[in-house]
Q: What sequence folds into this?
């Protein structure tokens, strides 16, 4: 009988299992391919999930930064005595700030093109009180122009010189004047395509006194912060101004790095120009009154990040909008005798935006606002000529930003549902892919498993070998996938831009590689073997295809894949969704283990002889 | 006669080919004594390899009335999986016609693998030394770190024999060990087996070749899954039959 005292220690399997795992991992190409496949799957899911959830997050958070937490709206006719309501709202300790809005549609006549027939844009006009508006929204940080660049300053200087020719001429000596005219004339054409250093040139021509007097003609020349201050107050040199969305003007072009350039070397920089705003007032019965126009300087531009808003919204001072829409304070006259004044129709606001204190949810604030509103109505004197609507009026709505945005985010919500479904399918595909990769790897090893079993390896130890094997591949693949996914997501805007406008060198390199492959294939295929020919043709087709695609994209002037006008946002979200990514990585490891352990267990259970016959 | 070491009693094995049941072994019995070289002779399909697989613990006899394999009196197929693994690992050594070496491992690693599986990994040095000695003994001392694919057929089979011997088994089972080799190389392998036999190793060898069968001490003739009667053996060369049953 076998002596159990000298029996080998069957538990000490570690050494040979590690040896086999290591050998299986290092002596074949398949594990490397498996690692890459797992990494690609993980990276794919991470990129897709991160971009989509970032996108939804942007939709949601943009709503909040653009319109506060709770919005009180009373349609086109407007809410009278809104100052009183705002005062009552701000008395509440849960309300951080409240601001009135006059909202309407208008036509904005742009300064471009240079001919007399100017282009007009349909714009959504928001009359705002900039100071309180900035407290409720992130208006101040959305302003695009903080300080003018040197080139923009040169344009402003050229504008000042052009507009004040006579004044300057009177002040300056003939020689200096002639020199200034020459410098300004050459600058006015050269400035369209290059920096000319007009600033220093003019400073040298003028005396110190003349120079400082010239700078005083436009506040923005002497004070670099003036442009931001003008945006924050909607005022320029005592005039009311417009702050327009960055995509309202066709002169602003987004660059690869996400910054903006103004076409014609800042020529069409909007703060140089005025715009004509026309709005259509509606009377209390809903009839249309004669349209009103006003010419306003562009004082700054804003970028909310939501393309739909950036391409259509402009801000003007609230009193300007009230005037254009006839929502300003007016006298009420007797119907029979227009000379008899019977009362005062107070100024109105179409909406009030309210921000709650930190930590208060929008839903909680909504209830507070509703209560305050009821008190506001109840507190109105009995003899008020124009009563604000009570909450039972269907025209009046008190909504959280989420409810308010529903019409705008509705399609996005639908898209999200669609995306959720797609995500599950992507996950399933990835899982099936990983499972099948491991299945075939282990299946191919059935004969080896038979050998191992015939020399005494236990079933458990064989399963363990493949568990280790798949664990290593899964962990390496997931780690690599996380890294690649993180890199792609972080640089997705750059990658997108590069794909849209690939460098010519890429085409040349691709064609060079295709040529190299052709030569190599011809040399290798002399023996008549098929594999080099097949690989050569595939390689040639791939690289020649890439080269041709690059040339094609170049020939059609670049490709925009993420079209800002379709996706609302002007940049692609590039924050990695770490919770989902970690779950994905662990999921991939789990699928690797499952994919390996099932066929390994199956093979281990087969009688060694049957496994050995497996080819 | 020395001690009985391995015994197959009334072995039956039936394979399922689709719906048809194909009996490969029917009621085959044989005995192997310590130090003996038994040859199982038979044409292809006679069930000789199956008999060897059953003896080596690589395949099970039929569940119902399939007979039993006794190793030193212990009925192998009634033991736990753990014991069967141990039996495959260190009580017997198996040599296959197609070598069955692991392609990823070196010659030395393939050789010492059963020692590692058996848990002798702790005594890694010891098993490496024994593996190296065996390989040197078989003229493969210069091939230790080569991969099986770099070796000739004869060299591979010698590695397989070294692997079968690493755990000092009581019996060496060889299934057509020369079947895949040319005659000269085959004879080299048989010489190796002969010298091992001279040193006292018990061998059971399966072949269809009479000349090879002559090298052993006794022959069991299998035909259609049954041990042929001695009378029939006279036709095939007059080899003394195994004194079975």
A:
């Amino acid at each position: 009988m076998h002596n159990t005292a000298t029996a080998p220690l069957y538990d000490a399997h570690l050494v040979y299992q590690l040896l086999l795992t290591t050998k299986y991992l290092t002596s074949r190409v398949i594990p490397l391919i498996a690692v890459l496949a797992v990494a690609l799957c993980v990276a794919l899911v991470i990129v897709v999930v991160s971009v989509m959830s970032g996108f939804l997050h942007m939709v949601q958070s943009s709503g909040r930064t653009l319109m506060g937490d709770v919005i009180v709206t009373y349609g086109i006719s407007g809410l009278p005595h809104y100052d009183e309501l705002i005062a009552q709202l701000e008395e509440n300790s849960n309300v951080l700030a409240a601001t009135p809005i006059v909202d309407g549609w208008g036509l904005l006549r742009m300064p471009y093109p240079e001919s007399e027939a100017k282009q007009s844009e349909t714009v959504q006009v928001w009359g705002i009180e900039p100071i309180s508006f900035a407290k409720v929204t992130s208006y101040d940080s959305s302003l695009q122009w903080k300080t003018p660049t040197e080139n923009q300053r040169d344009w402003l200087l050229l504008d000042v010189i052009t507009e004040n020719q006579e004044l300057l001429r009177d002040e300056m000596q003939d020689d200096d004047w002639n020199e200034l005219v020459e410098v300004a004339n050459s600058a006015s054409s050269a400035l369209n395509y290059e920096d000319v250093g007009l600033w220093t040139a003019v400073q040298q021509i003028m005396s110190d006194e003349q120079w400082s007097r010239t700078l005083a003609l436009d506040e923005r020349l002497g004070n670099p912060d003036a442009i931001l201050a003008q945006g924050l107050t909607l005022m320029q040199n005592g005039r009311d101004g417009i702050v327009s969305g960055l995509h309202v003007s066709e002169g602003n072009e987004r660059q690869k790095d996400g910054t903006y350039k103004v076409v014609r070397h800042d020529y069409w920089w909007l703060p140089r120009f005025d715009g004509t705003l026309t709005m259509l007032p509606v009377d209390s019965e809903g009839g249309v009154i004669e349209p009103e126009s006003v010419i306003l300087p562009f004082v700054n531009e804003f970028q909310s990040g939501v393309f739909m808003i950036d391409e259509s919204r402009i801000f003007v001072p609230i009193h300007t909008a009230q005037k254009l829409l006839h929502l300003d304070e007016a006298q009420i006259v007797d119907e029979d005798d227009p000379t008899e004044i019977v009362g005062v129709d107070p100024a109105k606001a179409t909406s009030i935006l309210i921000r709650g204190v930190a930590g208060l949810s929008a839903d909680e604030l909504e209830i507070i606002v509703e209560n305050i509103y009821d008190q506001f109505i109840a507190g109105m004197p009995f003899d008020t000529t124009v009563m604000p609507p009570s909450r039972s009026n269907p025209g009046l709505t008190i909504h959280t930003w989420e409810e308010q945005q529903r019409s705008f985010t509705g399609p996005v919500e639908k898209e999200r549902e669609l995306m959720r479904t797609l995500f599950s399918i992507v996950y399933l595909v990835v899982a099936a892919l990983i499972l099948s990769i491991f299945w075939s790897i282990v299946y191919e090893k059935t004969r080896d498993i038979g050998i191992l079993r015939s020399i005494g390896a236990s079933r458990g130890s064989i399963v363990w070998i493949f568990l280790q094997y798949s664990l290593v591949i899964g962990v390496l693949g997931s780690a690599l996938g996380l890294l690649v996914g993180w890199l792609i997501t972080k640089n997705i805007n750059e990658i997108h831009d590069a794909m849209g406008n690939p460098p010519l060198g890429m085409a040349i390199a691709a064609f060079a590689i295709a040529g190299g492959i052709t030569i190599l294939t011809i040399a290798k295929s002399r023996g008549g073997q098929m594999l080099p020919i097949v690989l050569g043709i595939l390689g040639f087709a791939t690289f020649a295809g890439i080269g041709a695609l690059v040339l094609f994209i170049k020939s059609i002037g670049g490709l925009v894949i993420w079209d800002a006008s379709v996706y609302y946002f002007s940049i692609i979200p590039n924050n990695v969704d770490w919770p989902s990514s970690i779950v994905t990585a662990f999921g991939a490891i789990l699928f690797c283990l499952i994919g390996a352990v099932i066929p390994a267990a199956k093979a281990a259970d087969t009688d060694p002889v049957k496994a050995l016959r497996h080819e | 006669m020395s001690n009985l070491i391995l015994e197959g009693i009334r072995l039956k094995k039936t394979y399922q080919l689709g719906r048809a049941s194909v009996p490969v072994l029917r009621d085959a019995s044989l005995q192997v004594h310590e130090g003996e070289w038994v040859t199982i002779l038979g044409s292809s399909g006679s069930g000789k390899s199956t008999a060897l697989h059953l003896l080596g613990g690589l395949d099970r006899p039929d569940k119902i009335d399939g007979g039993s394999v006794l190793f030193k009196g212990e009925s192998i197929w009634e033991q736990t999986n753990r014991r069967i693994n141990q039996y495959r690992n260190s009580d017997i050594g198996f040599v296959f016609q197609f070598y069955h070496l692991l392609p990823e491992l070196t010659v030395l690693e393939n050789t010492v693998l059963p020692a590692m599986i058996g848990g002798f990994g702790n005594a890694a040095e010891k098993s490496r030394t024994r593996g190296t000695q065996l390989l040197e003994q078989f003229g493969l001392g210069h091939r230790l770190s080569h991969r099986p694919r770099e070796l000739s057929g004869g060299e591979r089979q010698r590695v397989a024999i070294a692997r079968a011997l690493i755990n000092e088994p009581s019996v060496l089972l060889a299934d057509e060990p020369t079947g895949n080799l040319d005659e000269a190389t085959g004879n080299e392998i048989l010489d190796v087996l002969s010298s091992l036999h001279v040193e006292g190793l018990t061998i059971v060898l399966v072949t269809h070749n009479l000349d090879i069968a002559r090298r052993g001490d006794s022959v069991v003739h299998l035909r259609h899954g049954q041990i042929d009667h001695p009378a029939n053996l006279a036709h095939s060369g007059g080899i003394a039959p195994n004194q079975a049953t």
Observations:
- The helical segments of chain B are 48-55, 81-91, 107-117, 124-137, 153-165, 183-198, 210-213, 230-233.
- The CA atoms of residues 16 and 84 of chain B lie 24 Å apart.
- The longest helix of chain B spans residues 183-198.
